[in-house]
Amino acid sequence: xxxxxxxxxxxxxxxxxxxDGLDRRGLEIxxxxxTPVDLPLTLRFAxxxxxxxxxxxxxxxxxxxxxxxxFDVPVxxxxxxxxxxxxxxxDLIRN
Length: 95
What we know:
Blueprint: E1 2-13, E2 16-23, E3 27-29, H1 45-55, E4 61-73, E5 77-89
Antiparallel strand pairs: 1-2, 1-3, 1-4, 4-5
């Protein structure tokens, strides 16, 4: 297995933060298997309002997910492995 010390992440829609979180509970990622991960998140009403106003505007909306996986590596210590994803959101909310 692989010791995951934590996950630090943020999801933005059209550049506006929608949610974020940091989980430092740590867990063991199973070798040759799957390990479910429950993530705590922070969702602020003001952020939700800004995102809602943004996605209702004409044109495509984009999402950006930034996550850092924090691995506990013997001798070295904590190593951050970044994951960055972005793309277009489907037109689901438009008037």
